[in-house]
Amino acid sequence: MSGICGIIRLDGVSVSRAELELMASRVVYRGPDGIAYHCDGPVGIACLSLDTTPDGTGACRPVVVPEHGLLFAADARLDNRNDCAGVSPHLHAGVATDAELMLGMLRHAGEHGPARLLGDFAYVLWDAGHRELHLARDPLGMRSLYYRIEPGRVLFATEVRQILAVNGVPRRLNAQAVGWHLCGMQTPPGQVFYEGIEGLKPAEEVVIDMAGRKRSRCFWAPDPERRLRYRDERAYADQLRELLTEAVRCRLRARSPVGVSLSGGVDSTCVASLAGWLRQQGEAVPPMRAYSWIFSELPECDERENIYRIADHFGMPVREVPAEETYPLVEEAANQPHEDDPFFSMFQPFLDRSLAAAAADRVSVMFYGSRGDVICGGAVSDVPGMLLAGHFHRAWRELEALSRITSLPRASTLSRYLVRPMLSDLLGGSRLARGLHAARCFDSSRKPRRGPIRRAESYVFPGFLHRAGLPEVEPVRAEAANWPRRAPRERYIHVFSPLVQQGMTYAERITAMHGVGNADPWSDRRIAEFILACPQYSIDSVIEVKRLARRAMAGIMPIEAIGSIGKVSPEPLYFAALRDKAYDKVLGLMTHSRCAELGFVDEAMLRERFECFVHGNAPSFDLWPTLSLEIWLRRFW
Prior knowledge:
By secondary structure, the chain is an alpha+beta fold. Helix content is 40%, strand content 14%. It contains 26 helices and 17 strands. Strands 2-3-1-9-8-10 form a six-stranded antiparallel sheet. Helix 6 packs across helix 7 and helix 17 runs antiparallel to helix 19. The longest helix has 18 residues, at 234-251.
């Protein structure tokens, strides 16, 4: 939400304030509460403050400890303020800023410091004594930080465009990032669309010395061996409710009022209900306003009934945003990507409308339930877990439901969802085999069965994808190889999906552009650790979708709401835009396109595929990666 940027001159030349002002000028929306500059010889830093707290403790400004040669800045929301204050007797949790408390913990805990910080954060620490620059990012990747190492300097910033603003930084397209984007928008964390610039990965600490040498480490990761086994299955729901309540409470440390992007689905209704419930319990939390999509022309997408069940129960005013005014791609000005990358939502017009309304209502923070789908949904099947726990009847019902949904014969269903997963879990050498498989690079002599290239549509040139050097195994799947059982392994892939991570970065950026903070209680490291340690059959099933989240809301959310919440997709709005409302614009994006000119796609094949879809002669296909890339290339290249 706030922003930081800076320059470390490795050649000893002094950094000027003008250089920092140029970087800060690219993201002025991150500094409505002021911009602070600190220049000291070859070290310069700027902090742009978007403070959503009621007491100023979330302010972003440089923290200087001259006696120890330390300079620190953080774009952060710290959740364990008392723990951090406890290790710094000279700081008081009631008045110290998050950045001051974070620095105190880092000084006290040394290399263990980053892992002891709870919350959303990205920080920079210049240690003059050791002549080292430390950069770090929170484990769930809710705040961003980018850097560029050159022979004579290091540049770092919250957004890539700040680095691009610096004199002498080249603008060269990173073909590998483009390749990832065209393969289902699965661009891994750390991959940037401009050559020579890198992004910090979630839970990564990077240290750069005065010779420009870099070393990095992952300071946190969930434990693959951790397992929770409760006798009473209700205990899992109780613990999730406790963790999610605390996650909501931490993010309600904000000025009044706060907003929630409320649909009728499980994830956002859980967030809204817990915020309303905390207020009913007499806790000093700000009131919440809802901002909701209302469908008239597409009633199958409308969730008004459940939205108002929640809003009325907790006395929450609702600002309705008519879907018919937010068709994707219709208004060019409302469908523009950010300079940093081509990733933006096809439903950006709705996001902009709701955030503009929230800003007009003086909302400080907008709550989303974005990661709830992968935390408590995601269709991770765990029939073997049910059987091992003795839930034989439930396992049989699950298999029957899977057979109906997938239209597979019973024998094939048994093979896919029971026999193969059990063999995978039982084979002693399977983890080693997966590790060896993850290490293999893409072999151009054959079509890979796994990896990003299988996600690419047929009109994307295979030769380009080969030249881009995409691996056969996606990084997140290689990381998941450490998990010994298939169901937790699949959950890990869902939780840390690159596509989901890009969505988090996008949401933080678009809210900041409206002067509003961003909060997603489901993106809490404590919840992720818990969910990964749970029996996966207790979390979700085809019989009871998002089973654990629903059960956690007992006694908080109205009973009729728990029974009626579901998953309604707004995709029909997008398809209607492609076929009718924005047909000419989409066709224009496929004519003399930059994607074809640069050798990424076969334009003739793309147009033919699109026309077949529009006329109902072919099913829908993943067109958005190409459209979003084309819009971005035309806008910024």
